[in-house]
């Protein structure tokens, strides 16, 4: 049973990343007529509505102090992470942001080691895998072009990666409470939207419902709201609950790989030799971090 549940956890994490890796296309289309904060607010509001319809039962907490964990999860995973990422993109190159956000698993591992001692042990393969995957992600993102640093944007991206690491720990804690994943995700969304309200005024949020008369915009906001938010946050939180924060977070490494493949298929962008090498390194880094390569060698030795 435990083995089957682990398989489900890995499948959920992989499904989530495959979905999240394609969201940049929808966001790019919507940015023609929507601001980043408008896209963010509409997608999570729609996600909240979908989760409420899917499972309308009210979540009754066993202890009041558990509410604090939900509050901080909503602040980190829904509000701060996406705001920091979007603001970072206005200051620095998308390639820089993509690479920097990929260090989230490293932060997750370190924070888990500090705050959840004994739950998930960090082995050498985790750090080796991180280095290999990061090298691959750099090849994919920069593709032969020189690295251009922008202190403000790059720092915001680093903070975003750190915030996501905290979110991973918080969802692991929430997973231990024993509630329905849909109910807990819904509660996280509520707090995320509440914290987003001040940002609506700061970034000049406008409703402009007339924009939704365009079926292209409707499709893409549904894709982000129902798929990337409602479904994917549930599957991601489930994976963290089953596998733990560290093992789930390393799947973030393959997000740039999915983005490249999607760009080739949908946007007909060209793939280079450096990008192919980057993809191979990234996938190898994922397998190393998960301990798959080392485990196969051990199994072969035992068989011999």
TrEMBL record:
Coiled coil: none annotated. The chain crosses the membrane at residues 12-31, 37-56, 68-84, 90-112, 124-143, 149-167, 188-205, 217-238, 250-268, 274-293. Residues 9-141, 152-288 form the EamA domain. Keywords: Cell membrane, Membrane, Transmembrane, Transmembrane helix. SUPFAM superfamilies: Multidrug resistance efflux transporter EmrE. Belongs to the EamA transporter family. This is DMT family transporter. It comes from Anaerovorax odorimutans.
């Amino acid at each position: 049973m435990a083995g089957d549940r682990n398989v489900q956890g890995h499948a959920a994490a992989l499904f989530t990343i495959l979905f999240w890796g394609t969201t940049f296309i929808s966001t790019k289309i919507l940015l023609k007529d929507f601001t980043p904060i408008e896209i963010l607010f509409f997608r999570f509001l729609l996600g909240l509505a979908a989760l409420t319809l899917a499972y309308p039962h009210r979540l009754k907490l066993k202890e009041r102090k558990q509410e604090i964990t939900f509050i901080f999860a909503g602040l980190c995973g829904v509000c701060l992470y996406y705001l920091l990422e979007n603001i970072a993109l206005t200051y620095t190159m998308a390639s820089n942001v993509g690479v920097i956000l990929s260090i989230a698993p490293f932060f997750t591992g370190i924070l888990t080691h500090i705050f959840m001692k004994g739950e998930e042990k960090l082995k050498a393969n985790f750090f080796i895998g991180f280095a290999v995957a990061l090298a691959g992600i750099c090849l994919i993102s920069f593709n032969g072009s020189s690295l251009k640093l922008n202190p403000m944007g790059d720092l915001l991206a680093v903070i975003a990666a750190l915030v996501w690491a905290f979110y991973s720990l918080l969802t692991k804690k929430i997973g231990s409470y024993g509630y329905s994943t849909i109910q807990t995700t819904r509660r996280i969304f509520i707090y995320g939207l509440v914290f987003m309200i001040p940002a609506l005024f700061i970034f000049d949020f406008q409703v402009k419902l007339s924009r939704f008369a365009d079926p292209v915009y409707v499709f893409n906001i549904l894709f982000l709201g129902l798929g990337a938010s409602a479904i994917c946050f549930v599957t991601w939180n489930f994976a963290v609950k089953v596998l733990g924060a560290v093992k789930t977070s390393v799947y973030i490494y393959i997000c740039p790989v999915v983005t490249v493949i999607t760009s080739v298929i949908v946007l007909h962008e060209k793939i280079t030799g450096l990008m192919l090498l980057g993809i191979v390194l990234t996938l190898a880094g994922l397998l190393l971090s998960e301990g798959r390569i080392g485990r196969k060698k051990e199994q072969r030795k035992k068989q011999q």
